[in-house]
Amino acid sequence: MTQQQHTDVFVIGAGPAGLTAAYLLTKEGVPTTVIEADPDYVGGISRTASYKGFLFDIGGHRFFSKSREVVDLWKEILPQDFIERPRLSRIYYDGKYYSYPLKAFEALTNLGYVESTLCMLSFMYKQVFPHEKPETFQEWVSNQFGDRLFSIFFKTYTEKVWGMSCDEISADWAAQRIKGLDLWSALAAALRKSISPNTTARGKDGKPIKTLIESFEYPRKGPGMMWEAAAAKVRAQGGQIHMGHKLHRLARDEATGISTIEVSTGAGEIKSFTARHVISSAPITELMASIDRPLASRAAASRLRYRDFITVALVVNKADLFPDNWIYIHEPSVKVGRIQNFRSWSPEMVPDANLACLGMEYFCFEGDGLWTSSDDDLIALAKRELAQIGLATEAECIDGCVVRQKKAYPVYDEGYKQNVEAIREELAVAFPDLHLVGRNGMHKYNNQDHAMMTAMLTVRNIQAGSKLFDIWNVNEDAEYHEAGQSGVEDALNSQRMVPSRVARSA
To answer: How many CB atoms lie under 10 A from the CB of residue 349?
Structure first.
């Protein structure tokens, strides 16, 4: 083991949350050390992968936020490299394409008037006889759209994403991701759009519906540009970033309040650090496994689950296959869940104007049949399914590569909330200077701007020397997620700590 190094703040993970925290801390002169398990890439799931000059996202990352502070920080870190892109996406179902946001007359035509009438009757029935206390995704969405539209536009895709029945998925998932978009608002927006194309879609409260934004900003060579620039600035400001270093052991001295962090390198070496504060964006399961003391909530951590993700990037000998950024595949006859069109994200992602690069996205569990398939088999599957959908022939797919992403999505199953709460309560007492941030760090399906907000608030708490702000409120209610207006500062005013059980125990 090498000699122990001390730092004021130790950050686990160089994704959006970890690098945001490190950037803001080092900007203020706070000694900060970051470790990242990946030997090459910063940015986590927001990195940009590369294959023979073709650039692609791991999932597609829009740079859009109602938070002025987040937008300003993006521009501060990457001032010259944003381009504005139109947002265009559609749903593919039963051999037809449906625009998203919904276009009422197109949907009526595609579904047919009999099916459309049945959908509206199903919706109206649920308005009169809703599930009183929706606990599952299926119950929540059926209340909003009716059982029939749920079956057509939500069930297949959602079960592809999560690998479980919709009645096993917590209603929290729907409330977090699609609240603010109800059927009446969507229909009203579609009708207004037909009459006046420049109309902004708004919810019942009159606020813009974030789900229906029509353009977004994007780094010209993918989101990895943002996090590579952030890492460079952290280093320039005196911070350290150790690549290929993984958390091994975490302990805390009760007398001094100092934490000891042991990390393992790719070469098998163990390094030791000490710090006053630890910020973790690592998956909670990995964090809890590293803690060197008995914890009752370790069993709760073992019950947390994750959904993993495969991108098959296909190079197609055909330009501009479709204009969408991505297409949701609700068709049950194929395994692919979503198809990204990387030129539509940025022309600079595809180096040859005569070729297209598509991301065929598959959701899986680590160790299952898809995950363990060879790259050649996955590329062959992607080619077949692209041809089955009718976007290109197998012969037109001239090259491809595979990227596997572990723990892409924290699973919102029936018991996840109770498990996370048990972990929060115990860690607040056992490790009061341990701060959980980001998507996997909090086991919350945050977008990258919300992950950044959790880091911003954590830095302010560290600077203040107390937990002024409850970061667990970021994206906790969907109204803030979908329609928050002026961002972190207004959110902070409403989120100043009304001491919760966790805060009191800290």
So the answer is: 23
Separation CA 504–CA 506 (nearest Å): 5
126 in a structural domain: yes
- Pairwise CA distance, residues 106 & 120, whole Å: 15
Count Cβ atoms below 10 Å from residue 365 Cβ, excluding itself. 16
The residue among 138, 200, 127 whose CA lies nearest residue 164 is 138
CA-based nearest residue to 37, from 251, 273, 283, 226? 283
Which tens digit of pLDDT belongs to each residue from 26-60?
999 999 999 999 999 999 999 999 999 999 999 88
Phi-psi group of 422: left, alpha or beta (phi > 0 → left; psi -120 to 50 → alpha; rest → beta): alpha
Question: What global pTM score does this model have?
Answer: 0.86
Question: Residue 343: phi, psi to the nearest 5?
Answer: -65, -30
The Cα–Cα gap between 199 and 32 comes to: 46
278 sits in which H/E element? strand 270-280
CATH number at residue 310: 3.90.660.20
What pLDDT band is residue 177 in, cutting at 50, 70 and 90? Answer: low
Amino acid identity of 98? Y
Task: Give the domain-ending residue among 163, 194, 212.
Answer: 212
Q: How far apart are CA 207 and CA 82, in angstroms?
A: 26
**Distance between CA atoms of residues 331 and 261, nearest Å:** 47
The CA distance from 107 to 417, in Å, is 36
